[in-house]
């Protein structure tokens, strides 16, 4: 929307006729509609990602850690990751430094099974990658 107003201001001051301005505005709307029409893919109930995000995930299948980090950062905010763990228990490493109590990472079981299926790795490696990611986010806070 702001782009359209900026275009309007630009063309109002320039020598471009109204017909060209309308064509550009229509073209911008079509681009936005294409982005809005991008299909959502359901990973498991209550969790959907965009098709572009799925393609980005597919490119990371070679590394369990990269795939796990990418998926969890797409699904969760950094704030959620920083206060979460696999089990919901507080880590001994962060008992004194963490102000908020730890909580179980939402959809952790679904995430683990999805990552194991997509990367064909062991559940232990996936859990280790999730723990590393949560600990990294806690250190950033």
The unreliable regions are 1-16
The amount of helix comes to 55-70%
Distance between the termini: 35 Å
What spatial form do the alpha-carbon principal axes imply?
globular
Class by SSE composition: mainly alpha
Largest beta-sheet characterization: 2 strands, antiparallel
Gyration radius from CA atoms, angstroms: 22 Å
β-strand amount = 5-15%
Instruction: Count all strands and give the number.
Output: 4
Number of discrete helical segments: 7
Average pLDDT metric? 77
Q: Order of SSEs, N→C? A: HHEEHHHEEHH
Summarize the structure.
With 141 residues, this protein is mainly alpha-helical.
Short key terms for the protein model shown above:
141 residues, mainly alpha, two-stranded antiparallel sheet, two-stranded parallel ribbon, 7 helices, 9% strand, globular
Task: Describe this protein's structure.
β1 and β2 form a beta hairpin. Helix content is 61%, strand content 9%. The protein has a two-stranded antiparallel sheet with strand order 1-2. It is globular. It is mainly alpha-helical and 141 residues long. The N terminus is likely disordered. The longest helix is centred in the first third of the chain and has 19 residues. The protein has 7 helices and 4 strands.
Secondary structure blueprint with pairings:
Elements: H1 2-13, H2 18-36, E1 40-44, E2 47-50, H3 51-58, H4 64-75, H5 78-82, E3 84-85, E4 103-104, H6 108-119, H7 123-140
Parallel strand pairs: 3-4
Antiparallel strand pairs: 1-2
């Amino acid at each position: 929307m702001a782009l359209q107003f900026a275009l309007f201001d630009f063309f109002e001051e320039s020598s471009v006729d109204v017909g060209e301005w309308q064509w550009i505005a229509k073209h911008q709307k079509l681009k936005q509609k294409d982005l809005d029409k991008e299909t959502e893919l359901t990973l498991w109930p209550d969790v959907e990602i965009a098709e572009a995000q799925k393609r980005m995930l597919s490119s990371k299948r070679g590394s369990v850690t990269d795939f796990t980090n990418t998926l969890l950062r797409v699904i969760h905010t950094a704030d959620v990751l920083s206060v979460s763990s696999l089990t919901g228990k507080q880590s001994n490493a962060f008992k004194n430094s963490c102000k908020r109590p730890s909580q179980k990472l939402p959809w952790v079981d679904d995430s683990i099974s999805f990552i194991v299926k997509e990367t064909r790795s062991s559940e232990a490696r996936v859990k280790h990658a999730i723990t590393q990611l949560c600990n990294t986010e806690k250190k950033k806070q």
